[in-house]
Each structure stands twice: as C-alpha cells, then as structure tokens.
Design brief:
heterotrimer, A alpha+beta (501), B mainly alpha (99), C alpha/beta (501), A: alpha+beta, Arc Repressor Mutant, subunit A, three-stranded antiparallel β-sheet, B: 99 residues, mainly alpha, Histone, subunit A, two-stranded antiparallel ribbon, 4 helices, 3 strands
Chain lengths: 501, 99, 501
C-alpha cells in the first residue's frame, strides 16, 4: 500500500469546504431472514441456516418478512421520514459469489421511507440537523473466507469459501443527503450521526446495533470543494468503517488525503476506498465504472408494500423518545455537569450508565466506574469500553459493595478484573476469593500494636497534631493485612489509641 | 439507446458474465440488431400518450410471511449440488483482485 | 398396445376407483408405451420406472387398506423438467443443470405426490423454456407424434408429445408466452395456462417471473380441468399466488352449455399470416358455437400489434436476472478455463459452455433492455405497452365473456425450418403472448386438421383473470360438438406410431 500524502488538517479546512454523505446499514434482529424462514443468527456452523431461497436454488421464490417491514417503517418514522404509500422491491443486478442470486433484492425508486432528518449534538456542543434522503429495505450477502496467500486477505488468495448463513439477513440502509457546514467537525459529525442511528435502532429494539459484530455498518462519502464553489467535488466512498472511532478517523484521513491531491492539481478518482484500522489509512478499492450498471427493475416475484395509515400510526405510537430528548432527560435525572455528561456521551456510555443506575448504583458512582477504571482497562486492551464483557448490574453491585464498606477501592478494582475474566458476579467473587475488607477491630488492633512496637514515637506525634506520622503505621498495617484492611478504620483506631493514652 | 455494435455485445456479455467468441459476437451483433429494431416498435404504441407501467400482471399488495422460523436445509443438503466444497462451505476460485 | 393408454384420464380414474385396474398396472402400460415409442418421439428427458411403480404400488396398497384417497390417486402423470423433483434430475433442458437433483420438491410436484399420482418422468423442453419447438433443448428435440419430422411445439413439446403419443394420460406444462398452448395446438391436445397466480410457481425454474404460469396438458378438456383442480390453490411460498380459490374447473367442464354466452372474436388475430387451413377450421368453430346458442361478437385489440415486441423485452429482461444464479458456485455445471482462473472467469466460461445460443441471445438482449441509457426506451416502454394490452382486454371483456382466436398462425413446422431465424420463431406466439402479458387464462383445444397438410389446428379461448372456469365450460362444450361431428376424438385421427423394442 503506497503511502498517501496528507495535508495538514487545519490547512485543508482553510482551503476547502468538506461535504460528507453517510450510508448506514442496519441489520435487523428479526427471528428469520428477510425473504425466507431461516434463522437470522450468526456463529452457527456454516451453511446450516440456509434453504433453497437464500442459496438461490433454481425455482425458489422470496416471501417478505412482515416483522422486518414493520421494523423498517419504525426506523423511518424515528428518523422523521415519510412512509411510502406504495413501496416496491427491486432487483440490483451484479455478480459476486457472496450474492447467491447474483442480484440483491433491494428497493430502488420506491423506498419504504424517505425525506427525514436527524438532529445530532457534537462533543463541542454544536448541534447539526442531518437530512435523510431515504431508508430502504434490502438483504445482506453471505460471508467469504479467503484461503491461501500470505495475509488471508482477498489479494493473493488461492481460493475462497462461501457461507450463506448471513445471506438474506434483513438490512435497512439509511442514506443521508449531502451534509454541509460541519467544517472542521465533519469527522465528529459523521461519528455522532452514526451513534445517534445506533441509539435509535437500539431504542426501537429492532437491531442489536453492535458495530463490532457488523450490525451497524457505515460507508462514508467525502468530497471537497473550494470555498464558494457551488459544484460538488468528486467523492470517494470509504466502505464498511466499523467503529465510531474509525468513522471519525477515516473521514479525517480522506479530507487530508484529498486536500493534498487537489492542492497539487490532481483530480480525485471516484472510487470506493477501504479503511485500515491498523494503519490508520484508507486504500483505493474499485473505481466506479460502467460495470456498476446495476440494471435495477421491479422485483416481479414480490408485490408492493402498501402500509395502511392504521399500521403507520400504531408503529408511530410505539416509538421511543428521541435521542436528543433522552439525553436531556437523563442528564437532569442523573445530575451530571455538562462536561461530565459530554464525556459519557462521547464514550457512548449512556446505555451502560442507565443500566447501572437502574440496577441500583448512584449515578455518579456509575459514571466514575465506566469513564474511569473500565475505560482505562478497555483502552489498555485497545477496545471500546462498550465492548467489555460486563453488565451494568455487575458494575452496580460493585459500587454498592464499596458503598457498604465491604470493598475498598483497591479490592474493588481487583474484583473487577475477575468479573471481566468471567468469574461471575462481584458478590460471588468476593465470597469465593475471600476478598472482603477486614473491619474486625480485634485483628486491626493487633496489627496496629505490632506496627507501633516498631515505631513507638508515632503516638506522641499524633498527640502533638502531626497527623502525617500516622501514615507510616497505616501503611505497615495495610501491608501486614495484604491490603484487605479498611484504611479509614485503621486511622480511627490509631487516633483513639493516641488520645486514650 | 445505442446501435448494436460488436463492442456493445462484448460489453453486455461481460455484464452478463458470458464469455463470447469472436464468431459469437459477430452472429449476436447481427441477430440482436434485427431483434432490437423489431422490439423498439413498442415506442410507436406510446407516441403522444401517457401510460402507467405494469410490472405485475395481477395487482396485489401486502403479501407477508410471519417472522416464524421454518426448517432449513442440512449442511449436506445445501452443499449436495455444489461443484466443489470444503469445510462446510462452497468452494470457489480466487476472486479477482478488486476489493 | 394396451387399450388402457388411449383412455381419457377421467375414465382411468373411475377404473382405479372401482378396482378394475391397479395403479401399478396403469403405470406399467404407460412405461411400456414409452419403451416402445419414446426412442422416436423423445418426450422424456428422464424416467425412473422403479420410482413410478413404487409410488403406484403404494397407492394400490393404501386403496386396498381402505384409506380415503384423492380422486385422482393412482393416475400416472408426466411433469415438465423445469419443475423441481427430489427424486429425479431437474435440468430445464440445459447443460448447465445436467444431473442436478434438487433438495426440494416444487409445490406442484408436492401436490401431485400428496394426491398419490405416480410420476412417469420428466418431459423435454427448450432450454429454460425459451423456444417454440424444443429444438433448443440441450438434450435434443422432441418430435410431433403426428409427423416425426415436425416439431411438437415449444417450449413444452415434451409434455404435448407425451400425451399425444399416449405415453401419459396427462402432463404438467408451463406457459410463459404460449409454451403450453402452442404445443397443444400442433399436437391435437388440450392445454391451459391458468390465470397468473392460480398455480404456485414455487419450484418452477423461472424464465420470466411475471409471465410464467404452470398448467395442465391432456387429451381432452375435462382431464385438464381435473389436473388444474389438483395443482391450483394458494401457496404462501409464492407471493404472487392468488389467495382465493377459482372454483371447480371440472364442474365447469361438465356443463357442456354455451347458450347465451357472449363470445368475442379478436379482429387482430386472424387473416394475414394465418394459414388458410387454420382460418377455415376457426370459422367453422365460430359457426358451431353460434348454432349452440352463443352470441358471437367482434372485438378489437389494437395494441396486440405491439405484444410480441413488449414480450421480447420483458421476458429477456427478467430472464437475464433470473438466470444469473447459474454461476457454478452452489449447483450445476462448472467449467474452469486453463491456468489459474479467477471466479469471474470460471463463471463466464461456465455460462459460455452451459447455455445454448438462444439463452445467450436472450440474456444479452435482456441485459441491454435494462441497462442504463436504454431502460426507458426498451424495458420501461414495454411495461407501458403491457398496460395498453391489459386495457384492450378490459374493453374486449366488456363486450364478451370469452374471447377466441386460432392458437397459432400455422400448423407444426419442420424440425430445423426456423432454427436460424429467431424473429420467425417468435411469431408463432403472436396469439398466445397477450394472455401472459395480461395475466389472464388461455386454453388451446383441438380444432380439427388443416386442409392443406392434414396436421392439427388449435383454437384458443381467453377469459378475464380468475374466470378460468369459463374456458373449461366453453372448451368442453365445443369439444363435445366436434366429437359428435367427427364421431371420435381429435387424437384418434393421429397416425399409429411405429412400435419398437
């Protein structure tokens, strides 16, 4: 991969206006696939959730999943879209071995939902309204595994294996209109937009919305034009950027790369690009060509979807609150300062904290655990904190054990590592490993006496008001008790002892 | 709309993933030219009138399947007709270095 | 030759029910007939006597056990080889599917099996049903039992010749532009293309999804009615399947009354281009209907002039997409070029070797009709013409209950005569295509022999969508009038075939 020349980001923004466009694919969590009764589930043995329909055997015909249609309408409504009175399926024709029929059953000129908008708030506090062009129903493709060659990638592979378990899984593709005016914050806007889409589909319960599992995937279009120019520049489409952080980085990279080319007078090639998380760079994929003549036409094997007003209104009535409204509400409920709350939002931790608070933790304790220790651990493992295998209920339990004085901070951190190792609930781990704080005064007094025997001057120092002298004894006691002592109690006992003599 | 040329036939055959020999290109160019001239007649019927399209012969709408799991094929059945398979999957030649 | 094979299915069913003949015996005499004549006629692509006899023996056993059986149980039947069967290869007449045994039964075959009809074999067709003569079958043409040097019609020449040569009492066909009716016309048999959606297409290897329909082929009208009653009905696996029942065709066929019915003669489907013998017989039948108390009216369908053009755009367009799944990945032929070919080259080489010239021609034409730049002028325009043809029918059915025309302009032509002239071949379907474009039912019944060549002529009956019963009523009535005049059935004029082996 040749190294791209990049322009300094600030300079790029001085010279050019950034225009982005986002295509987000959301995998629905229906029980069955879009057009057949096979299970919509991953991780099973390859080619076991398949049937004549989703592996496109001759003679098979599709049948539309009612729940997938309703989920799609709900997504459309949540995005403020119009719902098409007559939505049709269309065939998008192209050959690729993961596409069993060699056409994708999708929607073309009559998508189920169109003309919506989504308001998103950026880390800086600025608010943008992104115009939604359309949301349409389609199906996922199978999974290719490339065998041979040095990297296990498609390049240089000797052959490929195809698993169609994912083929036909219902997707909703949400397409924005061109997004102008974000300036230097275009990368943040892209990420914040996808975050909001995730929150919406999760809130609707129509998708598991896990980016790391590909439930939500984003293709980011980026183009630049000189300030004041009306005509849009040539765009690139960076495919399948699969985390919020990557979206931000990929958009930023494309801005810098395109700016460097345009400044030299080199034309941008309209092409798909691939984001490489490891290298922090995009690389050129396939250029757009006349091979992209998809020959869309109305799917003759399926009839139109004409949702009734009653259906639309009943789905509208079930919509959860909008992400922006929810944020206002939970910030007030939790009493977080603006900065604290922004950190939580940026770390994508609203759901986790809500779950933790619901399980009984104090909001501030929940926030501290998630944005503090858990974020640190995730960072050290090069993960998003949301990817950690821990439930809000366990975090709440941990916080409550600390509040009750059963764990001190050090012990609580230790317990946390065991929870993350999958050893079970904090309470169970404390019991199994005997990690509870020792607050039995007898044991503590014995340890204090032992420590004082080696440092007899300390009691005098305390009596004279030189409290820092207590530290040496407390340290020795903690060491003797291997950290399981309650330091506060040790201090109290020491003062009592000094004053008593 | 363009005239049927040998290059167009080659392009269309490529889009349809059909290898064509020079001899076939020549024959198809000739035959398709005649056919295309003949089918272009549809436009005469539409001269000066505005007509909606009919993609489905019998108008129907809202035909759905409930979201209920039905039995799938076994892996063995799924792979039974495959020209080549391995590790429970369909095996194909390497994909052109394009992605 | 056993006299049993000459009997109508309705008679055979009575013999089975009353125990005068067993299903095994009936199946065996038909298998014997195939052994004697099919070397010449070549109706079948595949037969498995063991499987057929086992199914027959099962019905005999169940009948002996006093089980309640379907009215048609035990009646042997032949099935066109574009319907999937789990116990027999399904090729659709193509090399690309040679030897493919599907892992699922088509809905029609399922219904046949459930009713206990032994399947005698799979009948020949033009490759993927693209043709009017069976000359495009990858496995050699079938021959017309009336004259073995002539075509038996197509694409369903296997099903027409199989009943015309007494190798099966009834057969299943499919009709996209006349593939049931044209073969019936040139072999002196009966065939009906039901209303689109009356019979499930699930498991029918698609040619053009919005035109294809499965239907019965037989030697008389009542027999076709019995088979349509067996195979019709809603199927949730076919989203275009009609939800409602169209009533009993057999009841309609038993009425034998046309008094007061308004019968429309389509002005545009007579005269120029129609063989004199065809027209003479047609006019005689009009006179017969009038004598029987029907009211004859003339109707005009001015847009039929454009039907062939629209058809040869819509069909190839849909077919180009339907046939994309034949890609060497999941089933069927794989041809790998020399060296280390990519999947793209393997697919292209497979489709080159596996598809015959007519299939390639139509795929390329269809790809052209859909491609950007020509869509509006070709495919898009054809869909509008389709509307005009529907309007012509709607206007005609204001004046008439049933429309009639010759089924085809000519009698059977010689094998090889039109092979190199696609346009001339396409003209055979001039009278049958409009019904497919409009989705209405169409039937061909024997209409005597042409004076000039002594070959069978067919008469076509058309009714509004869902009014298939009218075709059976008029068809059976006219058939009765003919038989009363001729003193025998039309098929009884057919020359004896040379018996071999």
């Amino acid at each position: 991969m040749a190294k791209d020349e990049l322009m300094n980001y600030e300079k790029a923004l001085e010279m050019f206006e950034v225009v982005i466009g986002l295509e987000v694919h959301v995998e629905l969590n229906t029980k069955t696939k879009m057009f057949c009764g096979c299970r919509n589930e991953f991780g099973d043995e390859p080619n076991t959730n398949v049937c004549p329909i989703c592996i496109a055997l001759p003679g098979a015909l599709p049948a539309v999943n009612r729940t997938a249609v309703e989920s799609s309408i709900s997504i459309g409504l949540a995005l403020g879209c119009e719902i098409a009175p007559n939505g049709r399926f269309a065939r998008k024709n192209y050959f690729y071995p993961d596409l069993a029929k060699n056409f994708q059953t999708s929607q073309y000129d009559e998508p189920i939902a169109f003309e919506g908008e989504l308001t998103v708030e950026l880390p800086s506090g600025s608010v943008h309204t992104v115009q939604i062009e359309r949301a349409h129903m389609e199906e996922d493709a199978g999974k290719l595994t490339h065998i041979g060659g040095s990297t296990g990638r498609i390049q240089g592979a000797e052959y490929s294996l195809v698993d169609y378990n994912r083929a036909g899984v219902p997707l909703v593709e949400i397409v924005t209109k061109p997004v102008y005016g974000a300036g230097a914050e275009a990368p943040e806007l892209a990420a914040a937009y996808v975050r909001s889409i995730r929150e919406i589909v999760k809130g609707l319960g129509v998708s598991d919305a896990k980016m790391e599992r590909g439930n939500v995937r984003c293709d980011a279009n980026v183009s630049l034009r000189p300030h004041g120019q009306e005509k849009l520049g040539t765009r690139t489409e960076t495919k399948n950027v699969n985390s919020l952080r990557s979206i931000e980085r990929a958009v930023r990279y494309e801005i810098q790369r395109q700016a460097a080319l345009l400044a030299k007078g080199t034309a941008i090639i309209q092409e798909t690009r691939h984001w490489h998380e490891d290298k922090g760079a995009t690389s050129a994929g396939r250029p757009k060509s006349d091979a992209d003549d998809y020959r869309y036409f109305p799917e003759p094997d399926l009839v139109p979807v004409q949702p009734s007003k009653e259906l639309i209104e009943s789905l509208r009535a079930k919509l959860p609150e909008k992400p922006a409204d929810r944020r206002k509400r939970v910030q007030a409920e939790w009493g977080f300062a603006d900065l604290e709350f922004r950190d939580v939002v940026n770390a994508d931790l609203l759901d986790q904290i809500e779950e933790t608070v619901r399980a009984g933790a104090k909001p501030q304790a929940a926030r501290k655990w998630w944005t503090g220790e858990l974020a640190r651990i995730a960072n050290s493992q090069d993960k998003d904190v949301t990817e950690l295998e821990i439930s809000g209920a366990y975090v709440a339990e941990l916080a409550q054990l600390v509040d009750a004085g059963k764990l001190n901070d050090r012990l609580a951190r230790e317990v946390l590592t065991y929870v993350l190792n999958g050893e079970g609930s904090p309470t169970k781990i404390v019991a199994a490993r005997g990690l509870e704080v020792v607050s039995d005064d007898g044991a503590l007094i014995a340890a204090i006496d032992a420590a004082l025997a080696k440092q007899p001057d300390v009691l005098d120092a305390i009596r004279e008001g030189r409290m820092q002298a207590a530290g040496a004894v407390i340290g020795a006691v903690m060491q003797a008790m291997k950290g399981s002592a309650d330091a506060g109690r040790v201090r109290e006992l020491l003062i009592e002892k000094a004053n008593a003599q | 709309m363009s005239e049927i040329t040998p290059d167009l036939v080659r392009h269309l055959a490529g889009l349809s993933r059909i290898l064509v020999t020079d001899e076939e290109v020549e024959r198809f160019t000739e035959q398709l030219s005649l056919i295309v001239d003949s089918v272009a007649k549809v436009n005469e019927a539409l001269a000066g009138i505005d007509v909606p399209s009919t993609s489905h012969p019998i108008p129907m709408a809202n035909v759905f399947r409930e979201d209920i799991v039905e039995p799938s094929l076994t892996q063995e059945q799924a792979l039974s007709g495959a020209p080549d398979s391995g590790e429970g999957r369909f095996r194909v030649a390497a994909i052109l270095d394009e992605e | 030759m056993s006299e049993l094979i000459r009997k109508n299915a309705s008679e055979l069913v009575e013999l089975l029910k009353t125990g005068q003949v067993s299903s095994v015996e009936l199946t065996q005499v038909h298998l014997d007939r195939s052994a004697a004549v099919d070397q010449d006629v070549h109706s079948y692509l595949y037969q498995s006597p063991e499987t057929a006899l086992a199914a027959a023996a099962d019905i005999d056993r169940r009948r002996a056990a006093g089980e309640k059986l379907h009215d048609l149980a035990g009646l042997p039947i032949a099935v066109k080889d574009n319907l999937t069967t789990t116990d027999a290869p399904t090729t659709s007449g193509s090399k690309i599917l040679e030897g493919w045994i599907p892992p699922y039964d088509s809905t029609v075959v399922k219904r046949i099996r459930e009713a206990g009809l032994p399947i005698l074999g799979k009948t020949n067709l033009d490759e993927f049903a693209m043709g009017s003569s069976t000359e495009f079958s990858a496995f050699g043409p079938s021959r017309n039992p009336w004259d073995l040097t002539r075509i038996p019609g197509g694409s369903g020449g296997g099903s027409s010749s199989v009943v015309a040569s007494f190798q099966a009492p009834v057969a299943i066909g499919s009709d996209t532009g006349g593939s049931i009716r044209f073969p019936a016309s040139v072999t002196g048999t009966v065939g009906n293309k039901p209303t689109y959606g009356a019979v499930s297409r699930y498991g029918l290897i698609a040619l053009a999804s919005s035109l294809d329909q499965v239907g019965p082929v037989s030697r008389n009208v009542l027999d076709s009615a019995l088979i349509q009653d067996l195979i019709a009905g809603h199927d949730p696996h076919d989203s275009t399947s009609l939800p409602e029942s169209l009533g009993s065709m057999a009841d309609a066929a038993r009425k034998l009354d046309v008094k007061g019915m308004r019968i429309g003669v389509i002005k545009e489907l007579m005269g120029e281009g129609f063989q004199p013998g065809v027209m003479n017989r047609f006019k005689e039948s009009i006179a017969l209907l009038e004598q029987a108390g029907a009211e004859i009216v003339e109707v005009s369908c001015p847009n039929f002039e454009y039907a062939i053009a629209a058809y040869y755009l819509i069909l190839p367009a849909e077919a180009s997409s339907n046939l994309a799944k034949f890609d060497s990945v999941r089933f069927g032929l794989r041809v790998a070029p020399e060296g280390n070919p990519t999947i793209e080259r393997v697919m292209a080489a497979t489709r080159e070797a596996g598809f015959g010239p007519e299939v390639k021609r139509r795929i390329i034409l269809g790809t052209y009709a859909l491609s950007s730049g020509s869509y509006e002028h070709f495919y898009g325009a054809a869909l509008k013409v389709r509307t005009l043809i529907q309007r012509d029918f709607a206007a005609a059915f204001e004046k008439a209950d049933v429309l009639i025309s010759p089924t085809a302009p000519t009698t059977a032509f010689k094998i090889g005569e039109k092979l190199e002239d696609p346009l001339a071949m396409y003209l055979n379907d001039i009278a049958t295509i409009p019904a497919n474009l409009a989705g209405i039912p169409g039937m061909s019944i024997p209409n005597g022999l042409a004076d000039e060549d002594g070959l069978p002529v067919g008469l076509q009956l058309l009714a509004p969508a869902r009014a298939d019963a009218r075709l059976y009523q008029v068809g059976a009535a006219l058939e009765k009038m003919h038989e009363d005049i001729w003193g025998k059935r039309m098929i009884d004029f057919a020359p004896e075939l040379e018996v071999r082996g």
